[in-house]
Amino acid sequence: MTTNDTNDGQPKIQLGDYIILQRQKYTKLVKFSSISATAALGKEQLELENILDKPYFSTFKMCPKEDLGKSHRGRQRLHTLEICTDVELPNIREALGISSSGVDNRNITDDGDSQSLKSDDIEQLRDEYNKSTKIIEKIVENSKTFHAKTEYSQEKYLKKKEKKYFEFVQIKRPNIRLIAEIYYRQDAEKIMSIRMDTLSQIMSYSSVSAYGNYLMYESGTNGLLPAAFLNAIGSNTEACLVHMHPGNVPQQQALLALNFPEEQARRCISVNIYSVLRDYYQGEGSKEDENTDCNEHLEPCIKRPKLESEIEKEDNQKEENAGEQSNSINNVVEEIPATRTENDSDECKQIQETTAVNNDCNTKPLNKAHVHQKWQLENRRACLLMREKFDSLFIAAKEHPANLVRELLQFIKPSRPIVIFSLCREVLTELYVDLKTNNSKVINLHLTSNWMRMYQILPNRTHPEVNMQTNSGFLLTGYTVE
Questions:
Q1: Three-class SS state of 157
Q2: Window from 33-47, 93-107, 315-329, 369-383 with minimum mean pLDDT
Q3: Where's it mainly located (predicted)?
C-alpha cells in the first residue's frame, strides 16, 4: 500500500505502511497493520491508533494510560501517542538549574546506596509525572553523590537518565539508510555484515541508474540489496532488475518495508537461479509464444506502451466482435420453437447461460498466461531480459562465487561493470587470479576493503567509538570486454 500525500505534498501514514519509530537515537522498524496495533520500545508499549493520517516525521508525546496501577509495574507500560505541534527540547542541565560540580571523582564509591529512591518509588514517579524533567529532577535531588561528580560525569549521568525517561517519539518514513542501520544493529550476519559505507560503494561501482537492466545474485540479505537497487532505479523509468536467489522464496523484507508503488515493485523480477537457467537453456516454447501469451505480464520491462489511438481502435474492435457473436447466438435462441415441452426447458436455460458467459468472455477476453503460476511468468520475463543482456552484474554470495561468475558473465554487455561481494578475502583473491589468467572478458580488476570507524565528537573530547564491528566484507570490481 502506498502512502497518500497531504496538500503540501508531505506523505501521510496509512494502514499497511511500514514505519520507523525513533526515540532519541534508538530506531525500530514496525508495520502499521491495523488501528489497534501496538509497538514495543523496550519496556514501553505504544498504541499506534492516533498516528493514522498524520504526516511522516511528526513528533508524538508518550502519554501513560490512566488505568496503569501497581499490577502493571515491572511489565511493559502502555502509552497512547498525542501529536505535538511545537516541540522544544530544553537543556536538561539548565532546566534543573544545576550549577555546582566536583573537582574529581576520587572520593566517590559505587556502593549502591547513593540513590535513596527505590525502584517502586521511581515507578510511582513515572505514574504521577508526564515529563521526563520532573522525574530526573526528583532522582537528582535524592542522589547523595551527584553534586560531588565532575561536570562531565554529571552530563553523562543526565543523558543516561534522559534516554531512559524520554517521552517523545518521532515517526519516520523508511529509507535505505535507516533500514540498513537497523538491520546492521540488530543482527549484522543476516545482511552479510554489509555496512552503509559498503552498500554505498556497491551502488557506486554497479552504476545503477534509471536506464538499463541489471542482474543480481544474492544469498540472503533480508531484501536489503534488491531494495537498494530498486530504490536507485526509481519508478518513472524503463529499467528492470533481475534478482536471482538460491531458495524457493526470495527474501523481501526490506522491499516491503520501503512501501514501493506497484509500478516500481514490478520492476524487480525475483527468480530462483536454477529454475530460470533451466528455462533459459531448455525453453518452454518458442519466442513467439512467449511474446503472445505473456504480453500483459512482461510490462513494464519488455512491452512498449500502447498509444491512445491504438487502445481506442482495439476497444472498438472488441465491441464489434462481441455484438456480432451475441446477435448470432440470440438468433439461434429465437429459432427454437415455442411448442417445446417442459423437459426441454433445461436445454433452453443452458443456451441462455451460454449466451451470458460468451458475452462476458467477449468483454473480458481470456488470457492464456493466467493458467501459469507466478514463478513461471517471472522466469519468462527474466529469460527475455537475459537474451537482451544486462548493463551490470552484482553478486553477493555466501558460497564461492567462481561458478556463478562463469555462468552469469555471458549475460552482461561489453564495457559494463561487475561487482562481487564476499566476507572472505581469500575467496575473492582466488577469483581475481582466475579471471586474470583464464578469462579475458574482464579487465581493470580491483580487490578493495572498506573500513569505516565512527567518532564521538564532543567539546575537548573527540575519540573513536569503543565498540564497533570493523569487517564489512570485500569487493572485487572490474569491467567486461569483447
A1: helix
A2: 315-329
A3: nucleus
Burial of 308 (0-12, 13-18, 19+ CB in 10 A): exposed
Residue 192, pLDDT above cutoff 50 = yes
- The Cα 402–Cα 51 span in angstroms is 49
What CATH topology corresponds to 176-283+374-480?
A: Rossmann fold (3.40.50)
- Region 135-143 average pLDDT: 79
Extract the C-alpha cell encoding 141. Answer: 535531588
Indicate the helix (H) or strand (E) that contains 120: helix 119-128
Phi, psi of 82 (to 5 degrees): -120, 130
End-to-end CA distance of the chain: 44
Q: Percent helix, strand and coil across the chain, each rounded to 5?
A: 45, 20, 35
Residue 167 has pLDDT above 60, yes or no: yes
Residue-level pLDDT at 171: 93
Tell whether the model's pLDDT for residue 229 goes beyond 80.
Answer: yes
Average pLDDT score over the chain: 77
Compute CA 386 distance to the chain's CA centroid, rounded to the nearest angstrom: 26
Q: Which three cell numbers stand for residue 46?
A: 505504544
Q: Rounded CA gap, 260 and 246, in Å?
A: 24
* Residue 182 DSSP symbol: H
* In contact, 244 and 280? CB cutoff 8 Å: no
The whole-angstrom separation of Cα 375 and Cα 270 is 8
The region that residue 375 occupies, defined by phi over 0 for left and psi between -120 and 50 for alpha, beta otherwise, is alpha
**Phi first, then psi: what are they for 105, rounded to 5°?**
-110, 20
User: What does 405-467 look like in DSSP terms, one character per residue?
Assistant: HHHHGGGB-TT-EEEEEES-HHHHHHHHHHHHHH--SEEEEEEEE-----EEEETTEEEE-SS
d(CA 12, CA 356): 44
Q: How far is CA 397 from the centre of its chain?
A: 20
Q: Is the pLDDT of residue 57 over 70?
A: yes
Buried b (16+ CB within 10 A) or exposed e, 317-334: eeeeebeeeeeebeeeee
Is pLDDT of 306 > 80?
no
Q: CA angle at residue 480 from 479 to 482, to 5 degrees?
A: 145
Read off the pTM.
Answer: 0.72
| Ranges in the chain annotated CATH 3.40.50.150 | 176-283+374-480
